[in-house]
């Protein structure tokens, strides 16, 4: 290569620059201006980042391009910035760097645009880095690179259904034990009776489970099929309709109103001239308000051909956050515009606005935000199941001990004594209740049905059906405030300007001021912030109301000829409705302008929207830059929480005092400020802000720094707003009932201390005269423990603590803090972050080992709800996000009392009784077998065989025992009149070691009586074996039916039917059981006299003892029933 001479270098440089310009490669010349240098450094950093990323990805694939291979210096040395490292004094240094930069940029475009032509390694790493999408080539060349867009929520397929299901079932010890017992019957030495006696009960349990799982999976597949086969119009494919599952990254999809977004898209065009489109996101984030999305102005007016062939989209790697996105769109390889979350259409949202829009698919399948935020729900295990599990271990040990004991009693004369032990293990296997899990699972389904069909708590949804019993064991409730205890129905109640304030009774004065708004604006000019103190009250009120009318993210929409407001926060809607009530209405809004209607004069006030800074939970403020077209003025308007706005507005003496006063009134306060900008300052801000918004590295941080530098300081303080949030219906009575039930209530809120205290008093969380111990602004461990001393002495006090102090205690004195606070009736934590709420729930569970219920209504409550033993979500103004994440979804807080005190009681007591009856059913037949084996010289011979074993565990006893799931010990009304009854449930009295051993003793008595008398009235000789079985088995079945009847408190029609039908079926089946019974003996009158005698001896003593004990030690519910009847 011939290099130009030194004399012609400058000429060549300028010619080369022009050539690069014609190829749309930006040549950045040196500039002494600091801002230009900053921009240049940012772009060089970005280009270096992209070059290094590409070099790393292609280090093994680009040997033919040594200049692009980072770290390769065999040919030309490369410096840290990726440029040729030559002597900087050389006249050719600049030229070579420019050539290299040109080659890199073009190669980058070529290789990313046709990346599938490269080696497979580049494809494999692409998903973990930025992706460059070209609508004309990416869907073709890269069609196999990105995940398929097919939705699949199915757990099984035709090949893995049985293996997975069998593994899931046999990982439980009981099922595995019964499988081994059944398989042991293949071995002749261990065979006892018929193989069906052991296979059929286990097969029945597995069949029920498999049918349930299969039906659930079929429903999932049906839903997936419907979603996957939805048709969408894809541009450049002859406008043909393409199923959702066949969409590829880079496809341009045309959407209509009401259509579900099939994948993650970037909005390129809208049929609205402004490029706006509204989407519903309730199925993604649970929020019910519409979200505004805008197309990039670079692509809004392009033709279909230009969209296909002349644009490229660069996006960040797939991530979980639905509130953030980094990208840029480039037209003709030269002009770029930044892309953020406002330009996106996430999968599973719905297009709500009229007209059409065009979007480019950027993420599909498992890369979509919805898929990445969908986690497999953890299976919660109820406290009752843990208690049953511990009791079942005792049963398991009993089987082994009983088997070994009988063999020891028989002596070890037999050389095959170990085989005898195994045979006894098989004979006594009924002690281990294999059907218990199926019975409890079916019972949970019954409870869920009863909850969802309870007319007193309409629209309640059970999303987790495995823990209904835990509703009766709750000892701690952690609740949010806004939208949970309150309605989240906001009304602006107060304007405070420091020297004067206006309430709902004096708003007519504000209206009078607003009537003169247009006239005064024509005759006067707005003063700057320096002269704000000298303005009269009228002007200050007008400035505040105008700022409130402009500074928001509310959009007016017409649906069914009715005006509605759409916003992310009900606070903003309340403020807009307030400005409308005083005569200044929001008339029209799009992304570029906002129009207000002055109702008194009929004049419209037009403002150009230059920039919007949305509210988020981190910044706690919202701002907007507008151009007042009437006065040709630029203004930065901002509102936010006092904690952040205090540092932004000009210092004043009254701000802190007034925010405290308004908070004590129970009002949610916002600080309102503004700042006038010169055209020069605004243009400089816009330039730097645009530069920051194009950064692909630390974009948010750079944008925030730019806002702080130019805008967020020395704002004129206009005033405060106080918004009231009313309590939900029956909150006071509900909290009082729950506290009387012995439940400790913690309120965790992000609101201020004063506001939380006021709401707590009005909601009766704090009783009249109850001492409130306040801990605030404790950020150092020194002396922190002394703040808790009073609470150790007076445990009836209420603690009110702020988030800062709470964070300190959780960091340094976690154990000490919870040892004190878990005993308090009420704790109120303010200024809590979502993570703090979740941490508190986990720590209370860990420290107390008690059941914790968390209830909330917003997205910030999801973490807390998911960390609870029982999560309850309220469907409210903030949407369905908490409801979708919860175990139980309700519509009002007062429904919680019905859920806990009534359904929790029934679910726990019914399952406890059902579990013990199933154990009793297995124990009593095992006792009969043990008595027979002992009396027959310790021979391991089966007493009941074949169908007798199968029928006893299924159709002869199952329905009546399961009907106990419909029983109730008291009327529903008594749970509200005497909420103290709930304390018996939390103490676990219905299922404990005491009640378990009581049932074991009962089983031992009845089994011994039935078998001994059966043998006494016949004999154990082989000739009388069938007669003995005829007596003992029939007594066994009838005994169970009568015991069920004796345990029922309140008869239900289904209970009567199950008893009668089961008994009739058993009697009718006896003639077909001649293989096991002596049918001739059974028709003798003496047989029936023997039967009645044994049953009386088995049941009558039990009934008498139970009646005596109940009279001497009546349970709480029995006392209440007697008192209510008086």
TrEMBL record:
Pfam families tied to this protein: Cation_ATPase, E1-E2_ATPase, PhoLip_ATPase_C, PhoLip_ATPase_N
First and last residue of the signal peptide: none
Active-site residues annotated for this sequence: 480 (4-aspartylphosphate intermediate)
Span of domain P-type ATPase N-terminal: 143-192
Residue ranges of every copy of the P-type ATPase A domain listed in the record: 237-367
Family: Belongs to the cation transport ATPase (P-type) (TC 3.A.3) family. Type IV subfamily.
Catalysed conversion reaction: ATP + H2O + phospholipidSide 1 = ADP + phosphate + phospholipidSide 2; a 1,2-diacyl-sn-glycero-3-phosphoethanolamine(out) + ATP + H2O = a 1,2-diacyl-sn-glycero-3-phosphoethanolamine(in) + ADP + phosphate + H(+)
Domain P-type ATPase C-terminal: start-end pairs: 884-1114
Presence of the UniProt keyword Nuclease in the record: no
Annotated compartments: Endosome membrane; Membrane
GO biological process: endocytosis; retrograde vesicle-mediated transport, Golgi to endoplasmic reticulum
Binding site for ATP: 480-482, 572, 615, 639, 668, 749-751, 831, 837, 860-861
Keyword Membrane attached: yes
GO MF term list: ATP binding; ATP hydrolysis activity; magnesium ion binding; phosphatidylserine flippase activity
Cellular component GO terms held in the UniProt record: endosome membrane; plasma membrane; trans-Golgi network
Membrane topology: Multi-pass membrane protein
Identification of the protein by name: Phospholipid-transporting ATPase
């Amino acid at each position: 290569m011939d290099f130009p001479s030194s004399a012609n270098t400058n000429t060549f440089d300028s010619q080369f620059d022009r050539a690069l310009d014609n190829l749309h490669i930006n040549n950045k010349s040196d500039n002494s201006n600091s801002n230009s240098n900053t921009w240049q450094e940012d772009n060089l950093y970005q280009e270096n980042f992209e070059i290094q990323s590409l070099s790393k990805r292609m280090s093994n694939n680009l040997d033919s391009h040594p200049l692009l291979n980072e770290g390769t210096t065999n040919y030309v040395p490369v410096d840290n910035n990726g440029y040729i490292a030559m002597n900087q004094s050389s006249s050719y240094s600049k030229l070579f760097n420019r050539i290299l930069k040109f080659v890199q940029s073009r190669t980058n475009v070529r290789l990313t645009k046709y990346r599938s032509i490269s080696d497979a390694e580049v494809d494999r790493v692409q998903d973990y880095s930025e992706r460059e999408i070209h609508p004309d080539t990416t869907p073709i060349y890269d069609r196999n690179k990105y995940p398929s867009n097919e939705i699949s929520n199915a757990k099984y397929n035709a090949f893995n259904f049985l293996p997975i299901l069998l593994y899931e079932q046999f990982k439980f010890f009981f099922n595995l034990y019964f499988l081994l017992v059944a398989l042991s019957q293949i071995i002749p030495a261990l065979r006892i009776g018929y193989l069906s006696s052991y296979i059929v009960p286990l097969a029945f349990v597995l069949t029920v489970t498999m049918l349930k799982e299969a039906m659930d999976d079929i429903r999932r597949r049906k839903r997936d099929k419907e979603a996957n086969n939805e048709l969408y119009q894809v541009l450049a494919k002859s406008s043909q309709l393409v199923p959702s599952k066949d969409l590829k990254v880079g496809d341009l999809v045309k959407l209509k109103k009401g259509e579900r977004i099939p994948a993650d898209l970037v909005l390129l065009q809208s049929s609205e001239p402004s490029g706006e489109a509204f989407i519903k996101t309730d199925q993604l984030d649970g929020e019910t308000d519409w979200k505004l999305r805008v197309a990039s102005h670079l692509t809004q007016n392009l033709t279909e051909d230009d969209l296909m062939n002349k644009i490229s989209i660069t996006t960040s790697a797939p991530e979980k956050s639905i509130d953030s996105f980094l990208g840029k769109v480039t037209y003709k390889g030269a002009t770029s515009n930044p892309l953020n979350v406002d330009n996106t259409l996430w999968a599973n949202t719905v297009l709500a606005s009229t007209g059409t829009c065009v979007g480019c698919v950027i993420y599909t399948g498992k890369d979509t935000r919805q898929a990445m935020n969908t986690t497999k729900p953890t299976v919660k295990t109820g406290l009752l199941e843990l208690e049953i599990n511990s009791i079942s271990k005792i049963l398991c040990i009993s089987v082994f001990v009983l088997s070994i004991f009988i063999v020891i009693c028989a002596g070890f004369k037999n050389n095959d004594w170990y085989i005898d032990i195994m045979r006894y293990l098989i004979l006594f296997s009924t002690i281990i209740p294999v059907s218990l899990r199926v019975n409890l699972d079916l019972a949970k389904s019954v409870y869920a049905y009863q909850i969802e069909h309870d007319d007193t708590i309409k629209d309640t949804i059970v999303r987790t059906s495995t823990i209904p019993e835990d509703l009766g064991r709750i000892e701690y409730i952690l609740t949010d405030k806004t939208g949970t205890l309150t309605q989240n129905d906001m009304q602006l109640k107060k304007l405070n300007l420091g020297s004067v304030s206006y309430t709902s009774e004096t708003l007519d004065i504000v209206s009078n001021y607003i009537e003169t708004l247009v006239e005064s604006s024509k005759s006067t000019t707005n003063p700057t912030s320096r002269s704000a103190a000298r303005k009269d009250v009228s002007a200050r009120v007008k400035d505040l109301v105008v700022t409130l009318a402009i500074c928001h993210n509310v959009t007016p929409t017409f649906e069914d000829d009715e005006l509605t407001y759409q916003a992310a926060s009900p606070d903003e809607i309340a403020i807009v409705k307030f400005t409308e009530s005083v005569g200044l209405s929001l008339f029209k809004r799009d992304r570029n302008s906002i129009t207000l209607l002055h109702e008194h004069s009929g004049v419209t006030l037009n403002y150009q929207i230059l920039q919007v800074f949305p509210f988020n939970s981190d910044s706690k403020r919202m701002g907007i830059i507008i151009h007042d077209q009437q006065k040709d003025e630029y203004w930065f308007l901002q509102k936010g929480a006092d904690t952040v706005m205090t540092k932004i507005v000009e210092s004043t003496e009254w701000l802190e005092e007034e925010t405290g006063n308004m908070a004590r009134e129970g009002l949610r306060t916002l600080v309102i400020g503004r700042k006038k900008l010169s055209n020069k300052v605004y243009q400089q801000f816009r330039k730097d802000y645009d530069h920051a918004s194009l950064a692909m590295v630390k974009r948010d941080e750079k944008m925030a720094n730019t806002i702080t530098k130019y805008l967020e300081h020395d704002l004129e303080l206009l005033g405060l707003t106080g918004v009231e949030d009313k309590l939900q219906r029956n909150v006071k009575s509900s909290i009082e009932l729950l506290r009387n039930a012995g439940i400790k209530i913690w309120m965790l809120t992000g609101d201020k201390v004063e506001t939380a205290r006021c709401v707590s008093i009005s909601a009766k969380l704090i009783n009249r005269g109850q001492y409130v111990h306040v801990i605030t602004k404790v950020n150092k461990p020194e002396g922190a423990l002394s703040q808790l001393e009073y609470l150790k002495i007076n445990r009836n006090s209420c603690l009110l603590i702020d988030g800062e102090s709470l964070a300190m205690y959780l960091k340094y004195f976690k154990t000490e803090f919870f040892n004190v606070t878990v005993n308090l009736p009420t704790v109120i934590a303010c200024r809590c972050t979502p993570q703090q709420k979740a941490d508190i729930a986990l720590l209370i569970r860990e420290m107390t080992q008690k059941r914790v219920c968390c209830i909330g209504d917003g997205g910030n409550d999801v973490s807390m709800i998911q960390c609870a033993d029982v999560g309850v979500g309220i469907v409210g103004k903030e949407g369905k996000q908490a409801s979708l994440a919860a175990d139980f979804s309700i519509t009002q807080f007062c429904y919680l009392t019905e859920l806990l005190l009534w359904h929790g009681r029934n679910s726990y007591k019914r399952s406890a009784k059902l579990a013990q009856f199933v154990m009793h059913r297995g124990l009593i037949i095992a006792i009969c077998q043990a008595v027979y084996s002992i009396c027959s010289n310790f021979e391991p011979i089966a007493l009941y065989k074949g169908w007798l074993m199968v029928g006893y565990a299924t159709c002869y006893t199952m329905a009546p025992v399961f009907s106990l799931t419909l029983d109730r010990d008291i009327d529903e009304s008594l749970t509200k009149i005497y909420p103290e009854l709930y304390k018996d449930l939390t103490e676990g009295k219905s299922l404990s070691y005491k009640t378990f051993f009581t049932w074991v003793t009962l089983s031992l008595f009845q089994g011994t009586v039935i078998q001994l008398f059966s043998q006494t009235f016949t004999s154990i000789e082989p000739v009388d074996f069938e007669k003995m079985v005829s007596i003992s088995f029939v007594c066994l079945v009838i005994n169970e039916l009568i015991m069920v009847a004796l345990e029922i408190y309140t008869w239900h029609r289904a209970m009567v039917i199950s008893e009668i039908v089961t008994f009739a079926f058993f009697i009718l089946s006896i003639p077909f059981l001649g293989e096991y019974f002596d049918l001739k003996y059974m028709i003798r009158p003496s047989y029936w006299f023997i039967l009645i005698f044994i049953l009386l001896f088995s049941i009558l003593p039990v009934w008498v003892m139970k009646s005596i004990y109940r009279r001497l030690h009546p349970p709480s519910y029995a006392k209440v029933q007697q008192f209510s009847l008086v």
